[in-house]
Give the backbone structure.
Amino acid sequence: MAPAAESSAAPRKSGEIAVPDPGSGEEAEATRFSPEEEATLLSQSHTEKAEANELFKSAQYSQAISVYDRALASVPNYLEYEIAVLKSNVAACHLKLADWKAAVDEATKSLEALDRLDPPPPPPPSSSTKKDEHAAVDGVKGKEGDDDDDGGVVELADDDGDEGEALEKLREDDRRKDDVRRIRIKALMRRARARTEQAGWGNLQGALE
């Protein structure tokens, strides 16, 4: 993965990643690539991904892994979705090669990237936690009599922003959530299959010994 560009005291040229002076003792502040640099890196990554996809279709799984790795090397390390897609594809290659451990590892990395992008909901609270929460809510309700709010509907002020732009952003967010959900399901299924095969192979080896 292409590392995120980092700030430096010296000016940097376009497309060049600033590297902090290791002897300065100062921690560099991580920044992102410019839109132009990011687009160039993603274009390169997409080209290599398409090549790897064709290798996968032709059952050249080891070669596909190498090209997927090249595609990953071009992706800025803050673009979690693109990383997750490529890692999931690498996991699929390892499944075809019956390398169960590697498939589990790559699928897990894909899921970790998606979790950073779109954290899963927290687990349901235990019964004791629920009781504590109810007690806290009851305590708050007991103090609500001092508020001046009459419980009526609060009308929001008009916003002069572009409604069309806001709606399009909402649609884009929904599309991205759908994409994340789709890749998460694929990665989960690939990891589950690899773990099942890994456990079965371990049981077979134990029986042979």
The radius of gyration is 25 Å.
